[in-house]
2-oxoadipate dioxygenase/decarboxylase (Pseudomonas quercus), 462 residues
Amino acid sequence: MPTPDYVSPDHIRARFSRAMSAMYRAEVPLYGDLMELVAQVNQETLANQPAMAKALQRSGGLARLDEERHGAIRVGTAEELATLARLFAVMGMTPVGYYDLSPAGVPVHSTAFRAVHEDSLGISPFRVFTSLLRLELINDAGLREMAAGLLAKRQIFTPKALALIAQHEAQGGLTDSEADTFVTQALETFRWHRQATVTQAQYQRLHDQHRLIADVVAFNGPHINHLTPRTLDIDNVQALMPTRAIPPKAVIEGPPRRQLPILLRQTSFKALEEQVAFTDSEPATLGTHTARFGEIEQRGAALTPAGRELYDQLLDKARAGLEGVPAERDPGRYQALLEQAFAAFPDEAQALRRQGLAWFRYTPTAQGLAGDASGKRLDTLIADGDIQCDPLVYEDFLPVSAAGIFQSNLGDEARTEYGSNANRAQFERALGRPVVNEMEVYENTQRRSLLACEAQLGVKLL
Ligand code: OOG
Ligand code: NI
């Protein structure tokens, strides 16, 4: 039997990411404005910094830049999470990493669905930060029961999407037209619902426990709550946002500005207050719900476990320097504390490499390919210009930053305390599979690049 022509999961993901962006742009026009601003600043940055443009070109980052974005959703049950994992698998997206947000007063734990192979990331780096509500952290038994009851009644996937997921699993792929139908049907799960599934009073009860609980429980699906384009100069976009009537949050999350950006810097604009209808609403008494917002991010070098440990330590040091005053209240001071603390983090590619703080992609240069490299060691090959190395881009998230983004959109209500409640095993049981360790993903990419150098230059590097 001839093998049918299936669309590669990478291309289904690329189509889905584009369709998602178009839908969100129509739903939240401010997102479109932000996209335009980001594209403009990216172009200016590339024009003013030819070295950066060249490095991006080499690493494949340039081609994917305009396509690059992440979204975020929150689901309510293990079954919803497990089915989402199957839906994302159709698009070549694997759960990577475990994030516990409970220490930040947010009763969820999360993972990021994304592609893991560098070739797949080159086609579409689309990622979805996916959180599972943890009803077990809510101490009001009556409320827990009400929430569980509402969640048990809803179906967040269309029948056609479910059928196509099963078909993909059974036959090992989707044809072109099946893939198009899949994208349209899968998109329905992430659409905004103006109609709530609860009465005004029920909404209020959920909301009073935690605004996030109302957001997850009171609607018929996990609407995408933000979609984040990647900028090459976040300070510039942050400064220009007010000129487009987009008010940014006061503090950029993550590391300070550096010569060589590391990990991830993010900032967002405040969630919109949107009209919704409760099941007992008269047209004249529509309510509001605040959940959806916008965010931008600048991605830098992926750090090794040693680099990440140093990052966490320096971030803690900067935050301790605030002595309890929220960073948002004195952004200038926080910026100064960050810069002081991160002076201890090397800010040059070769220093990061020699100290084992970041992951790299190694490529033979034209000179290396033309000459005789045999017998040379990696350091010499790099110093002689036979091998070029570029830091791998960080493809994941940061829990402290994520907490900051969650918090800035939960309003100024008193913070709930849940203590630290990491429970990765429970998350993986709900998901139906283990999450991938992101460090292994970067290590594999680095190793593949070294193997390619070995093959092309006839040297031994590993
Ligand atoms: C997710 C917040 C985390 C990020 O970029 O760190 C996040 C949410 O609010 O659901 O998207
Ligand atoms: Ni985000």
Remarks:
- Residues 70, 72, 129, 226, 228, 295, 405 surround nickel (II) ion (ligand 2) (CB under 6 Å).
